[in-house]
């Protein structure tokens, strides 16, 4: 077989996984979700291409994540590069990020046994990708790491803050996007531009790819980590998903009307941005005032439970994907919560937008404070911020150091506590253990003890082992550098970590 095939539809991918596609004669399928604007995707695609040659009896497929949103949503893709490993039509593993060695090992693990007589031998990373490509990817990863640390540095200079505020205020409707309205550089930006044109609203835009200072600054300024970002009269509405949901429900046009933004009908005639009448759910005037009775009712609902989500539908029967996402997250965090179906009450639905100054749903509240919508809740969960807020508010019990250590140790079946990262070890002993594990073909998680002094000191006491690195298998300490190297030299390392 060999080579990489681009997937053009979900039906095509489903057929390949089911084995009914002409291209699919293999039970092993590896899918690469990528984006044309992402340098890490492009570099990992070269590794992916080499692997497709090295393992000709597996099927290697490529999906442009933002151009195929139905496929990306089905596989919960939230960042690229992202890889899905399938066997006999079922997903057996995934990988997020630019990690060529892990990609190579995972491919070898799933495809190496497909046909032992004919398939290529499980490739080492060098054999699979070539030293030039690997060095390029590692350099890219180092670059990404340094830029990320810069972007998360606290504070923002006043000149930058003033510049961002001027951009936001320069037009009643303003879009921070990748590319320009005439030439969008990503699918999400293209969607929002299309929506704004379909609604018939004039808008300004800024290409965040042309200015890293604005790009990183806007993440802090808005408290929104991704692009595009859509603003109306200086207020953030949200990103692509929220813009799409608001447009489909008719809420986007309502928001523009409520803020006095002129909207042009498809026949070219201007539409009057009508005032909201007093009969519309207790909203008494176009300035956004609420009747005392409605405000009291909203406050009562918000405080009816420590955690409340205003959503479309009910937790067991969500009526939109965004509401379902927030419900799933809260359940994953094992949080008890109350809910209110905004589809059942137009007065609350419209009034809460004014009360919260948040124009879409779902809306999550913790102890009476608005947290945000689905994108923000998802980002907070990924970063650990959601659990921290829930703990600080007394919703979840505070985690002891021992609990934290147990969670870290069990976060991967094989877990290495080391100095540095596998791609950039900070001591010789850690480097030797990483090398042994990789040569043995073992996939493992890791934690850099140099980043957390509390974990570093606590683990010494917890394990009764005073030095690092420390290797764990299924929650049990295997040992340090000397023990790992001895197991490797005796040919026992892989079997010890797979019993």
From TrEMBL:
Highest taxon listed in the record's lineage: Eukaryota
InterPro entries xrefs: Glutaredoxin (IPR002109), GRX_PICOT-like (IPR033658), Monothiol_GRX-rel (IPR004480), Thioredoxin-like_sf (IPR036249), Thioredoxin_domain (IPR013766)
Pfam families assigned: Glutaredoxin (PF00462), Thioredoxin (PF00085)
Compositional bias (Polar residues): 144-160
Purpose: May only reduce GSH-thiol disulfides, but not protein disulfides.
Disordered as annotated region, ranges: 141-160
N-terminal signal peptide: none
Listed name of the protein: Thioredoxin domain-containing protein
Organism: Iris pallida (Sweet iris)
